[in-house]
Amino acid sequence: MIILTFLNICSISCILYSFTAKHQYVLIEIFSEAWTFMKIEVAEEYVIQSSLQKNYTQYLQMYYQVEQGKQYDLDIYIQPEDTYKINQVEKRDCPNNCSQKGLCQKLECQCFEFIAGDRCQYDIEPIFDRSTYYIEMIPFQSKIIAIYLQQDDIVDDQQQIRNVRFTVSPSINATIYFLFPFEIPYKSLKNSKLVFDGIIDQEGQEIDFSNKFESYHLRSANYSFVFMLQNPYFLTLNFTIKSELIDNDNQFQDFILVIILSIVSFIILLVIIYIVKKRCQYMQEKKQKGNQSLNSQKGLLHLMGIVDPAKDQECIICLDLLDQKPCRITPCKHTLHEVCLNQWLQKQKNCPICREAFLDEEGYPKYVKTRNQTTTFLNHHISQYGIQ
């Protein structure tokens, strides 16, 4: 299939190049004034050995390696056939001698200032202090422009990085790179510098380049947006390019959001600290009240005298006979089991029989004098159990 296809092509347009190889390479070059599709194919005995093609360019070259002293009959297909050169050369060199706009070093073109491209074929048009720019381009032409903006304009008063908005009429294919001050375009047009690649139209394209921006020590330093433009139409057109810096609302909104979240978080933290503190105070007060209640209960119990109950009398609480367990007498002269009375005092501070209060109006326990108690004994218990 490859042989038949090449024969069909060569029947229309093909160059027969017969020679005895004197050097290591055959250099094939195509030149064109228009921006067009270019292709080179080299075949030996109707078998394609090498092929190269490129869309929308003005120059294409191929180095075809040969063996010195050997006779060759090459079939070379060239598209278009406007202008071409076929020569034998000793070594590989930079394409088109860097268009006489740069130096060839290690087979790569080192372009002069405001020149770019793999063969230094683009003149970079610098644009300073202009928000509108007009450019004429022939069909499928590629062109490079550099729009320069000062650091003072890029950074606002809140030290936020503004966005940049570009509009083009009519629409155009654009690849945009963001370069720092004193960066050379031909060395710096890399993916790490890329900020946009696509179509820009009259509705415009807003670009956020803050993640690539780094401040420079000179506030007046110029940063550049380097455009690689291509006219996608079959007509020669005049394009209008406009640029403007706009405040980065997203950054400002993010900044405000961070502040609000920080304040809310701080308030929530204060509320949590307040709740925990109040909870600890409540638990401590509850514990103290419990201890005071327990002490008061024990104090009241011990202030009630121990007595020997009469036989055949029942405890009103448990209904067992009083003489089966130790008993105490209340200030109202009722005898109860000590254990039952203790349990009763955990809930009530009055007599379970007559409901007389065990505490007087001032909150002091009523004194019971028995054969086991004295006034000194009473005072001792009041002090010991902290009865109020």
Automatic annotation (TrEMBL):
Transmembrane regions listed in the UniProt entry: 255-276
Domain called RING-type: residue spans: 315-355
Gene Ontology CC annotations of this record: membrane
Compartment(s) of residence: Membrane
Signal peptide: 1-18
Main location: membrane
SMART domains: RING
Pfam families assigned to the protein according to its UniProt record, in alphabetical order: zf-RING_2 (PF13639)
Alphabetized UniProt keyword annotations: Membrane, Metal-binding, Signal, Transmembrane, Transmembrane helix, Zinc, Zinc-finger
Superkingdom classification of source: Eukaryota
GO MF, one annotated term: zinc ion binding
Protein name, UniProt field: RING-type domain-containing protein
Lineage of the species this protein comes from: Eukaryota, Sar, Alveolata, Ciliophora, Intramacronucleata
